[in-house]
Amino acid sequence: AVNIPLDALPAELARLRASPAVVTVCTVGGGRSEKAAQLLRERGFTSVWSLRGGVREWQEQRMQAKGIRP
C-alpha cells in the first residue's frame, strides 16, 4: 500500500505505473478517492477502483479485508 495525498498524485504517477491495479481510498464518503481514480483513468490507468463510501462506511458495515486484523 502506498499513501499518496490527492494533491500530490500527479507528481507520483510514475511510481504507480508498475502496479497491476490501483484502489483509491479516502476516509469519509469516497469523494476524494473517486477524484483520484478519475485522474488515474484520464492518465491511462485501466485497472482502477475507488472504495465507495470511504473507510468509515467500510467500518460501519463491518466489512472485512483479507489479512486485516480488527
Question: What do you see in this structure?
Answer:
The protein is an alpha+beta fold. Helix content is 33%, strand content 9%. The chain is built from three helices and two strands. The chain has helices at residues 13-16, 31-42, 54-60, and strands at 22-24, 48-50. It has a two-stranded parallel sheet with strand order 1-2. Helix 2 (31-42) links the parallel strand 1 (22-24) and strand 2. The chain is elongated, with a radius of gyration of 12 Å. The chain starts with 12 loop residues before the first helix and ends in a 10-residue tail after the last helix. 13% of the residues are buried.
Mean pLDDT: 82
- How many strands, what sense, and barrel or not for the largest sheet? 2 strands, parallel
Secondary structure category: alpha+beta
> How helical, in percent, are the residues?
25-40%
Tally of separate helices: 3
Shape annotation? elongated
Indicate the radius of gyration in whole angstroms.
Answer: 12 Å
Low-confidence segments, ≥5 residues, pLDDT <50? none
Report the portion of residues in β strands.
5-15%
H/E series: HEHEH
- Number of strand segments: 2
Gap from first CA to last CA: 18 Å
Strand order of the largest sheet: 1-2
